[in-house]
TrEMBL record:
This is Conserved protein, MxaS family. Residues 47-252 form the DUF58 domain. It comes from Methylobacillus flagellatus (strain ATCC 51484 / DSM 6875 / VKM B-1610 / KT). SUPFAM superfamilies: vWA-like (SSF53300). InterPro entries: DUF58, vWFA_dom_sf. It holds the Pfam family DUF58. It comes from the Bacteria.
């Protein structure tokens, strides 16, 4: 039985897959797809089922011509999940639960498209228990994703993202990078440079409680995920305004950074909406 938090969505890729395996995306291999590629002589491509009578009659060398088509192919899809300390933040819900929801929805959606899926979890290093190579093992992926909520990662950073590159295929793929991106911009730039062969979809997880629903006046307690300790802050309007301004500036910086890599970010706050993800692909990644 599938977890109730799975919310499948539709996606497409704006490039032709180089995979030789049959799938649902346009490919560059010659095969049995529907996209016309060109003609060749029957000698070079002996398949009478694809004989082109009109071109054969026009051929000045009187050779029998056959039609060639592009082979519909699969594409590799990755869910790269930030499982570091900041994912322990709890507003209306724990961020790690939102990571779980997004990753499981990706895995199920990829399975529905007959593509190959890989799960990659990291904190300050790669987490072997949450790494699955490309394949069709969707149920195993969902089992590992379901275990995300048992992770206790307080005090752990997110530099493991810089170890992800070698786990990605040489063929162009779709990389969903799921994180709150509360890490140095230089680290994000290094990672994006490593992912440059692929199409990256940055899924940015923010909670309204982090910056908008703060006390206007009085003491407030906030969890420092890097240490696991509570921090007491005396809030007043000026302090609250600084939090809001800092997050707005951070959002603008992230948008500029990802757009420079032609990877528009998708912001998720509190609840993952499958329709919004489908709309993201329709808006930004239409072939």
């Amino acid at each position: 039985m599938l977890p109730s938090y799975i919310k499948p969505f539709s996606y497409q890729i704006p490039w032709k897959s180089s995979s030789v395996h049959a799938g649902d995306h346009l490919g560059i291999q010659r095969g049995l797809g529907l996209e016309y590629k060109g003609n060749a002589s029957l000698v070079d491509y002996p398949d009478l089922r694809r004989m082109d009578v009109r071109q054969s009659l026009r051929d000045p060398y009187e050779q029998v011509q056959v039609r060639l088509f592009y082979h519909d192919s699969i594409t590799p899809v990755y869910a790269v999940c930030d499982l570091s300390s900041s994912m322990q933040y709890k507003g209306s819900r724990r961020k790690i639960e939102l990571v779980q929801e997004v990753a499981a929805s990706i895995a199920y959606s990829v399975s529905a498209e007959n593509d190959v899926f890989s799960l990659i979890g990291y904190d300050q290093h790669l987490l072997d228990d949450y790494v699955l190579p490309l394949g069709y093992q969707v149920h195993e992926a969902l089992e590992r994703i379901d275990a995300f909520t048992g992770i206790d990662a307080l005090g752990r950073g997110s530099t493991g993202i810089l170890e992800v590159g070698p786990l990605l295929s040489q063929n162009k793929g779709l990389v969903f990078w799921i994180s709150d991106f509360h890490m140095p911009l230089d680290t994000i730039i290094q990672a994006m440079n490593m992912f440059s062969r692929h199409q990256v979809v940055p899924v940015v997880l923010w909670e309204e409680e982090e910056y908008r629903r703060l006390p206007r006046f009085g003491l407030g307690t906030m969890l420092d995920p890097e240490t696991g300790r509570d921090r007491t802050i005396f809030f007043r309007e000026s302090v609250r305004a600084k939090f809001i301004t800092a997050f707005e500036q951070r959002r603008a910086a992230l948008e500029d950074l990802f757009l420079a890599f032609e990877s528009p970010p998708h912001f998720v706050s509190g609840v993952f909406e499958a329709e919004a993800m489908t709309h993201y692909f329709e808006k930004y990644l239409t072939a």
